[in-house]
Write a structure and sequence with these properties.
It is built from 10 helices and 25 strands. It is α+β, with helices and mostly antiparallel strands. Strands 1, 2, 3, 4, 5, 6, 7, 8, 11 and 12 form a 10-stranded mixed β-sheet that branches. Strands 14-15-16-18-17 form a 5-stranded mixed β-barrel. A 3-stranded antiparallel β-sheet has the order 20-21-22, with no helix packed on it. Strand 24, helix 10 and strand 25 (445-446) form a beta-alpha-beta unit. The protein starts with a strand and ends with a strand. The mean pLDDT is 93. The protein binds adenosine-5'-triphosphate. Residues 6-7, 9, 15-16, 41-42, 45, 47-53, 89, 123, 126-128, 151-152, 154-155 line the site of adenosine-5'-triphosphate. Adenosine-5'-triphosphate is lined by residues 6-7, 9, 15-16, 41-42, 45, 47-53, 89, 123, 126-128, 151-152, 154-155.
């Protein structure tokens, strides 16, 4: 049986991954339990608590015990969920063996695998309704359980779908790992006791097989939350061995338990390449867009940096331009953005909100080395002024005239290639550039660390 769970926590406490870890440990007495999955869904969903995470796992249960296992899960979800918080609406989806077998058998007839694939992919990239989830649950004969308005059913089904798809083909989707350590209950809500020096040492030993443990440029440890939730820290990476090695290095308060998750974190799965999108750009969706810088970057109040790109004809109607923003928390990334100039060919990666792309990465594909400036007067050497629209330039003192701006080839102080926000500002689902080094090697990357 595969079980998906979501929406059990609030900003004030709990964490769905902790509930999952408790269940995985508790259910071992009923049969073998798989490594649980942690999926990050659409990062733009307005009603998410934090990182829009949902979990799932598979358990091989001895016949006749399914009902008992479901009761244990329902009881734990009811007991541990933050039900008094308005935004907490737990949902659980059960895919029992019969339904799982039907999926493998019926693949071609009723397209059940395709339905689950679409649901999971839409949960990461689009905005779904509860109706969408109920339709699949009913068509594929799944069981479910929910509390309050049960919105967690959406995330629970998406997480369960991820487990189903990876069951027979573990490489169905790109994935990484996270080892989560959880605090003892009496410490929840207090500040975390972690020996920082040990974390820096651990990171230095295993990076880049582990990543986003620390942020070197910003001198910050980023693998531990600051919220009252049960998570002590999480170690992310591509290698289970390296993750456990990091774990061994870290000195911290005694933990209650730890759990390894297979996850879609660090994969960029939320990004839609516009060629694939049937419709135009929509808010609450995340994109990869090719374009040309059409206004020079400027810093606005709050330290955010804004510029526009004009989307190339290939991707949208001629002339459409869209604003891009690097928010203040992206720190040093803004210095890269400030170096862009009109005419640079770039690709932007990020989410669309209020018609603005919130930048996660950029690729500088082709720098425009030519900088145009008002011409200098041949006689006095001062800058000439515009003589009016399309009327060239004139020196006020000497009366000299020039038709065009000066064009100077300059060193731009920035190289072509991919740039990213630093670990302090990284979304869970965003792929760190250091992972691209291991996969897509034909691009110049400038990892932020
Ligand atoms: P945490 O990261 O601490 O686990 P969270 O950020 O995951 O919290 P949830 O409490 O899980 O937030 O709330 C997210 C809610 O949004 C859930 O009810 C989930 O079912 C729903 N949801 C997730 N993805 C989508 C989507 N693509 N469309 C519509 N609803 C979604």
């Amino acid at each position: 049986m595969i079980i998906g769970i979501d929406d059990t926590d609030s900003r004030k406490g709990m964490c769905t991954t902790y509930l999952c870890a408790v269940l995985v440990d508790e259910l071992k007495k009923y049969g073998e339990v798989s490594t649980p999955r942690l999926v990050r869904l659409n990062p733009c969903i307005p009603f998410k608590t934090r990182g829009n995470g949902a979990v799932s796992f598979e358990i091989r249960i001895a016949n006749g015990k399914e009902a008992e296992v479901k009761e244990v899960i329902k009881a734990r979800v009811s007991e541990l969920s933050e039900l008094s918080e308005e935004g907490t609406n737990p949902g659980v989806v059960f895919i029992d063996n019969e339904a799982l077998n039907a999926i493998s058998r019926g693949e071609k007839e009723n397209n059940s695998e395709e339905m689950l694939k679409n649901f999971y992919e839409h949960a990461v990239r689009e905005v779904l309704t509860m109706e969408d989830a109920y339709t699949i649950i009913s068509n594929l004969h799944f069981d479910y359980f929910g509390l309050k308005n049960k919105r967690g059913i959406i995330g629970a089904l998406a997480a369960a779908a991820f487990s189903v798809l990876q069951k027979n083909k573990p490489n169905y989707y790109d994935f990484t790992y996270e080892l989560m350590a959880y605090r003892r209950k009496e410490r929840w809500g207090t500040s975390r006791s972690i020996d920082e020096a040990s974390v820096w040492k651990a990171d230095a030993t295993t990076y880049p097989l582990t990543w986003d443990t620390v942020d070197v440029a910003n001198k910050k440890i980023v693998f531990a939350p600051h919220s009252p939730c049960p998570v002590l820290f999480g170690i992310r990476g591509d290698s289970v061995d390296a993750i456990y090695k990091t774990y061994e290095f870290i000195h911290a308060e005694p933990e209650e338990r730890k759990m390894l998750f297979v996850t879609n974190q660090g994969t960029d799965f939320h990004l839609i390449k516009l060629e694939d999108a049937e419709e135009k750009l929509q808010d609450y969706h995340s994109y990869i867009l090719d374009g040309m810088v059409s206004s020079n970057p400027r810093t606005i109040e709050g330290g955010h940096v804004v510029f526009s790109i004009s989307l190339s004809e290939k991707t949208l109607e001629n002339g459409i331009s869209i604003e891009c923003i690097a928010y203040e928390p992206t720190k040093g990334f803004r210095n890269i953005i400030r170096k862009l100039r009109v005419g640079d060919e770039i690709t932007v990666y990020g989410s669309l909100k209020k018609e603005t792309i919130n930048l996660e990465k950029i690729e500088v594909r082709k720098l425009n080395p030519v900088v145009e400036s008002n011409p200098k007067c041949d006689k006095c050497g001062r800058s000439m002024e515009s003589a009016g629209r399309l009327q060239g330039y004139r020196c006020k003192r000497c009366g000299t005239y020039r038709a065009d701006k000066d064009k100077v080839i300059v060193d731009r102080g920035i190289e072509e290639g991919l740039y990213e926000v630093p670990p302090v500002a990284r979304r869970h689902i965003s792929k760190p550039l250091i992972r691209m080094r291991m996969k897509e090697v034909n691009k110049e990357i400038h990892p932020s660390r």
